Amino acid sequence: MILEMKVPSPGESITEVEIAEWLVEDGDYVEKDQAIAEVDSDKATLELPAEESGVITLKAEVGDAVAVGAVVCLIDTDAAKPAGDTAEKESVAEKKSEPKKEEAKAPQPVQAKETYASGVASPAAKKILSEKGIDSSSVKGSGKDGRITKDDAVNAVPSMGTPTGGNRGETRSKLSMLRRKVAERLVSAKNETAMLTTFNEVDMSAIFELRKQYKDAFRDKHGVGLGFMSFFTKAVVRALEMYPAVNSMIDGKEMISYDFCDISIAVSGPKGLMVPVIRNAENLTFRGVEAEVKRLAIRAREGEITVDEMTGGTFTITNGGVFGSMLSTPIINPPQSAILGMHNIVERPIARDGAIAIAPIMYVAVSYDHRIIDGKESVGFLVAIKEALENPEELLMDGNVKKALEM
After folding, report:
1. 3-class secondary structure per residue, 58-87
2. Cα four-point dihedral sign 370, 374, 376, 380
3. What is the DSSP pairing of strand 345-352 with strand 355-369?
4. Do 150 and 128 meet the contact criterion of CB atoms below 8 Å apart?
5. Against a cut of 0.70, is the pTM above it?
6. Looking at 26, 64, 216, 374, which residue is catalytic?
7. E strands within 104-247?
């Protein structure tokens, strides 16, 4: 029986996928549920499992765009599983064990004759080269035994950095469907929104102290680390509740506001940027946020994230600080109306209680759609985040750290 394997629908609104990589070759015997291909949609990379066991015939090439529901391969379910290739492996092993024949040595090029005079400039030539700012080692001498003559110095031209003899190759590769979609969305966000960015700085001393005091006990009890994402997520949820316009988006001539906080977190995956969503973050504890961040990050990096897990966020947090970014302008993740950018933490001098102190400082940025978010709201939103991060015990933990951390 010949089974026609068709492309399943990876999610709503997706009409086609692209063959990113075949994990088997034409004519191979595959087992049921064995991953036979990786396919890219405009939202995620997914594995395609074999529906039955048998010999496979591929019907699409790597890079082909295949419509959802179209036949992507055939599986002959009546074909017998081939016998092992032990004899072939033994033959290969024997060949590898044979001593290698000594390869004929290529003739060595004859070295040019060099003497004490090679590359040495005459007094007159040395003076001219010095005036031109040219190193004598960069000039080829035409005099006896390679001596640099006055004429060589006069004709010498200072190097302007023109590439000579270096590798100047280039490669060309097709962008994946996911990367192309990300590019389209980023350009769309720049062209179709009135995007502005406001910046601020956060003194992370209080969070550092809390993590130093409780991170070991937190990990021992909950099995996850007490990172920065839980503090930032909780601070964002608080700020969104104070400034609901930031938790809104435009749909045609209407503005949709949400009474829940689905926080998208930007994660760098093997196929590019992915943005899984923490659902109803307003209901999660510090432990709940950290556990969900860890779960989603692992799934994204291992290519197991689903389209549903990356759809429907109301606000995005991106952390360029993990790559060393000091300050950047994050781009809105449409159709959302705002995004928070975190950056690296560096010890900097600040004024505290009338004196100069050294503190761990992070620059933060909020990019927002000025069509529905006014400057007053965007600045107030970022200030609310700053206040919560600088005073987490009072504003994020209701004055009870152990209870908030479920210790």
Report:
1. ECCCCCCEEECCCEEEEEECCCCCCCCCHH
2. negative
3. antiparallel
4. yes
5. no
6. 374
7. 195-203
| Domains of the chain, start order | 2-76 (2.40.50.100), 123-154 (no CATH), 195-404 (3.30.559.10)
CA–CA dist 50, 22 (Å, integer): 12
User: Whole-angstrom Cα distance, residue 51 to residue 59?
Assistant: 15
- Structural tokens at position 236: 């964002």
Residues 237, 283: Cα–Cα separation, whole Å: 10
Residue among 195, 239, 272 nearest 382 (CA): 239
Closest CA to 315 of 245, 389, 231: 245
Distance of CA 331 to the CA centre of its chain: 15
Q: Does 374 participate in catalysis according to the annotation?
A: yes
| 342 bridge partner residues | 319
For residue 341, the surrounding DSSP H or E stretch is strand 338-342
Q: CB within 8 A of 224, min separation 6: which ones? A: 218, 287, 290, 291, 294
Distances (CA, A) of 382 to 246, 253, 342: 11, 27, 12
pLDDT in 10s for each residue of the chain, 407 residues = 889 998 887 776 678 888 888 889 998 999 998 989 888 876 677 788 999 999 999 888 888 888 888 898 999 988 888 876 444 444 444 554 454 444 445 555 444 445 444 667 777 778 788 877 787 777 888 876 677 887 888 888 776 555 555 677 788 877 777 777 777 877 888 888 899 999 999 999 999 999 999 999 999 999 999 999 999 999 999 999 999 999 999 998 999 999 999 999 988 766 667 889 999 999 999 999 999 999 998 888 887 888 788 888 999 999 998 889 999 999 998 899 999 999 999 999 999 989 999 999 999 999 999 999 999 999 999 999 999 999 999 999 999 999 999 97
Beta-sheet strands, E only, within 116-221: 195-203
**From the candidates 26, 135, 370, 398, which is the catalytic residue?**
370
